[in-house]
From TrEMBL:
SUPFAM superfamilies: Ribosomal protein S5 domain 2-like. Keywords: Exonuclease, Exosome, Hydrolase, Nuclease, Nucleus, rRNA processing. CDD domains: RNase_PH_RRP46 (cd11372). Its main location: nucleus. GO terms for biological process: nuclear mRNA surveillance; poly(A)-dependent snoRNA 3'-end processing; rRNA catabolic process; rRNA processing; U4 snRNA 3'-end processing. It comes from the Eukaryota. This is Exosome complex exonuclease RRP46, putative. GO terms for cellular component: cytoplasmic exosome (RNase complex); nuclear exosome (RNase complex); nucleolus.
Length: 258
C-alpha cells in the first residue's frame, strides 16, 4: 500500500483496497480515485497580504488574508477563534447555517497551521472567504485555498503546511465506492463525505471533519483509518500540482510539526 501512496500521477490518487471499487468510471469520466482538474491563481487581491482563487471543477472559492494586523476588537474582547477573524460568504444569496459551520471548521484548521505564539502582541489574522460556486467538496477546497493564501502572504508565521481531501462513500451496483473530491451530485448520493487534512511531510491526519455519523462510532473510527491512505494519496496528487505550477511558492512549505 505504501508504494501506491508514494507514486502518484499528477491528478490521480490510487490505493490498493479490494473492499472498495476505485477504478469504475464516474458520470464525469473520472475514476473514483481522481480529483477534478484544479485551477489556481495567487496574489490577485492587491488589498490583501495574500490571496488565492482555487477551483476544483465547478467548485470555486476566493480567499484573502491579512496579518498580522492590529486587533480591532476592544481590549479584553476577542473573536471565538482569537487571534483569528474568519468570515465565509457566498458570492450571491443570503448567509446560511452551513457558512457558520464552515467558519468554525476553518478557524480550527487555521489554528492548526498558524504559529500563534510568534504573532506580535495585540495582533490578529483575518481570513475572508468568498464562495464563488459550490459543486461539491466545498470544505476541502476552502481549506486548500486558505493555506495557499497564507503561503502567498508570507508574513504570517506558520507551523507548517497541510492540504485537505474530501472522500465520499456510496453504495453502487452491489459494491462500495470511495470517491475522491466528490461533486455535488455525488455528495447527494453518498452515505457521507468526510474531509481529511493531511500534513504533507509526515502524511499524518492532523484534522478530520466528519459528515453526519453513520453507524456506530467505533465503526466510523475503523473506516476513517481505512480511508486515510486514500486521503494521503489525494493530497499528494494536489501537492504535486502545486509543486509543478508554483515552485517559487512551494519553497515556503514546511511540515506542520517542524
Amino acid at each position: 500500500m505504501s508504494s501506491a501512496v508514494e507514486e502518484v500521477n499528477p491528478n490521480k490518487a490510487e490505493v490498493a483496497a479490494p473492499e472498495f471499487i476505485y477504478h469504475q468510471a464516474r458520470i464525469d469520466g473520472r475514476e473514483c480515485s481522481m480529483m477534478r482538474p484544479p485551477t489556481l491563481e495567487l496574489g490577485l487581491l492587491p488589498q490583501k497580504d495574500g490571496s488565492a482563487r482555487l477551483g476544483f471543477g465547478d467548485t470555486e472559492v476566493l480567499v484573502g488574508v491579512n496579518g498580522p494586523v492590529e486587533n480591532r476588537f476592544p481590549l479584553g474582547v476577542s473573536t471565538p477563534g482569537y487571534p483569528l477573524d474568519v468570515t465565509v460568504r457566498r458570492a450571491s444569496g443570503m448567509p446560511t447555517a452551513e457558512d457558520k459551520s464552515v467558519e468554525y471548521q476553518l478557524t480550527k484548521f487555521i489554528n492548526t497551521i498558524i504559529d500563534t505564539h510568534l504573532l506580535p502582541g495585540n495582533t490578529m489574522v483575518t481570513v475572508a472567504v468568498e464562495v464563488m460556486n459550490n459543486d461539491g467538496s466545498l470544505l476541502s477546497t476552502i481549506f486548500n485555498a486558505a493555506i495557499l493564501a497564507l503561503l502567498d502572504a508570507g508574513s504570517i508565521p506558520l507551523r507548517g503546511t497541510a492540504f485537505a481531501a474530501a472522500l465520499g462513500k456510496r453504495y453502487h451496483r452491489g459494491g462500495t465506492q470511495i470517491l475522491v473530491d466528490p461533486d455535488q451530485s455525488e455528495e447527494e448520493s453518498s452515505v457521507f463525505t468526510d474531509t481529511f487534512v493531511i500534513d504533507i511531510h509526515s502524511q499524518d491526519v492532523v484534522m478530520l471533519v466528519r459528515d453526519v455519523a453513520v453507524g456506530a462510532a467505533a465503526e466510523k473510527e475503523v473506516e476513517a483509518d481505512a480511508l486515510a491512505p486514500t486521503a494521503v494519496a489525494a493530497v499528494k496528487a494536489f501537492e504535486k500540482y502545486v509543486r509543478s505550477c508554483l515552485a517559487v511558492y512551494y519553497q515556503k512549505i514546511r511540515p506542520v510539526n517542524a
